[in-house]
Amino acid sequence: MNAPIKPSTSMEALQARIRDIQEATRGVTAQYDRAYILQCIKEDRFPDELWAKLGEFGLLGLSIPEEYGGSGGGVLEITALNEALALAGVPTLFLVVTGLGRVPIVRNGTPEQIKKYVTPTCTGEKKMCFAITEPNAGTNSFAMTTLAQPNGKGGWTLNGQKVFISGARDADYMLVVARTTRAAEVKNRTEGMSLFVLDMKTPGIKLQQLNIQVETAERQYMVFFDNVELPADALIGEAGKGAKAMFEGLNSERLLAAGAALGLGDYALAKAVAYSKDRKPFGKPIGSYQALQHRMAMAKAQLEAARLMTYSAAERFDAGEDAGAHANMAKLLGSEAAVAAVEAALQTHGGYGFDRDYDVVTLWPMLRLLKIAPINNEMLLNYIGEHVLGLPKSY
Predict the structure, then answer these.
(1) Is residue 274 assigned to a domain?
(2) Is the C or the N end of the chain the one with fewer CB within 10 Å?
């Protein structure tokens, strides 16, 4: 008989890192569980107690160097945290926007900017959201019109608007992508883009809540900037050279979204498995029926494959490699697998799946959203086709 194949040392180390984060997270979600997050959603309030406990346990500091008050690690660790929270039924979009918003600052900001804007987020004292999407530009962020211009006093004046900004009401800071040179005035579309950190108490910022029907504690907003005055240290990196830093953040966002999809997909699938073992309308558990069993088994296989891609991409990202293709694939596969899982859960529950008390249909909007946001899967396929396969650009 052949000897069993043992996982590599690096794989064992990776699994240990993920397992440690999952165990620590369970210490939080045992106190603040699915019932808690549903109550926060019902009351339209931010899960402050959960967030504070994550900070107390050092989990919010994951991916931030210890010298800046963080817990160390990289995007892999905070992706594992996002997955662990979702696996307990308490996904948080705020961790996605916080995680991606901090990456460009840590990689491109000055030590003073990191201490000012990032360090307080490690304890939960301050919260950060992210703003890039605009009503008219949509997925084509290079066509954004939000403009920051020198104000003659060493700082900047910001005007424009953003849309689908998760958690804007509850954030202390917002990382904003804006043009410092209009799109029509640059030779290359990636030129003239800059990153700014806004204090949300700055005059001239107006929020308009959107009527988005997704079961999360965070709400989404249209954000208007009307002559918002920014100090010089609000600019992260060099003016007009923010595109690369922006994509660093967006790649981490893909991975954090994938983590949420994986966790919530497994959470939905676990509900399907448990129900199918107990439900016996014809005397046998419906989980023994291949029509349902195979559907659940396929969803599990898809989730595990997406999980391998996600953590492989995270390792590449943290190693400083070009992780764009793998991050896009991870988000694509993770969101598709998670939707397959919740669809299996709905089908397994039958009519009860649409009874909110069974808490299955409540999972569907967020998982389905992940096929559209933070970027739609069609654009991910375009990226893979063009940049991985070398096919002609289709749009």
Answers:
(1) yes
(2) N
CB 112 within 8 A of CB 290: no
Q: How many alpha carbons fall within 13 Å on the CB side of residue 208?
A: 7
From residue 236, give the alpha-carbon distance in Å to each of 11, 240, 329: 35, 10, 28
Mean pLDDT of 55-83: 96
- Specify the pairing of strand 173-179 against strand 128-131: parallel
User: Domain of 212: which CATH number?
Assistant: 2.40.110.10
Residue type, 251: N
pLDDT confidence of 9, banded at 50, 70, 90? low
- In whole angstroms, give the CA distance from residue 390 to residue 393: 9
Based on the fold, state whether residues 283 and 384 are members of the same structural domain: yes
Coil, helix or strand for 128?
strand
Return the percent helix, strand and coil in the chain, to nearest 5: 55, 15, 30
Q: Is 0.70 topped by the overall pTM? A: yes
Clarify whether residues 318 and 276 are in a common domain. yes
In a domain, 3, yes or no: no
pLDDT at 1 over 80: no
- Whether 15 shows a pLDDT value over 90: the answer reads no
In 3-state terms, what secondary structure has residue 109?
Answer: coil
Non-local (6+) Cβ contacts of 326 within 8 A are 309, 312, 313, 316
pLDDT (0 to 100) of residue 6: 47
Is 104 found in the same domain as 36?
yes
